[in-house]
Design a protein that fits this description.
This protein has about 190 residues and is of the alpha+beta class. Helices cover about 15% and strands about 50% of the residues.
Amino acid sequence: MMGGGASTFVCRTLCLLLLAGAARSETETSISGFAGVMTNNSFGEALSPFDVEFTESALVGVGLRQEWPLFGSNRWFVGIEGQLVGHFGVQDHFEVNLPLVATYKPQSRLGDYLSRITYGIGLSFASKAPQVEIERDGASQNTLIYWMAELSTPLPAEDFEAFFRLHHRSDGFGLFSVDAGSNGLVLGLRRSF
């Protein structure tokens, strides 16, 4: 369980990294569109092809991301992404997510196949308590922690890439009073400017 001290440390560290990157003027802006399916699994199970159990609920969304090089690096970046997500099927609500993101861009031969690895964490606000979370955990609430893990691959068209993302909402190991969470498996397309 993550205590208040650990969560405060993580939040402060992410904010300092974001500010360190923002001090540089070389920014990258990107826009993305994505779609996915919700699962009835923990995040570990959701990534196992043999354990994943899909629900009858899907999502579509758009994201706008701004990233800055971390301390002048051409491999490490920090930023922020705003997402607007619509859910349909078992649940029918809108969700707004605002994670801080940390990105690594491989520069070796791996970069020919994997253009970036991204982790993001922030807040998620749903227009109503998500039904998938209620059915899985017995309760939920509108505001929870949002985190994502993402792998991107370059596409032949310049400045475009495809990505796979784990879309996760949860109580953040007890940071919120309700013990709830959900996971979606998402595919998307991003264009950088």
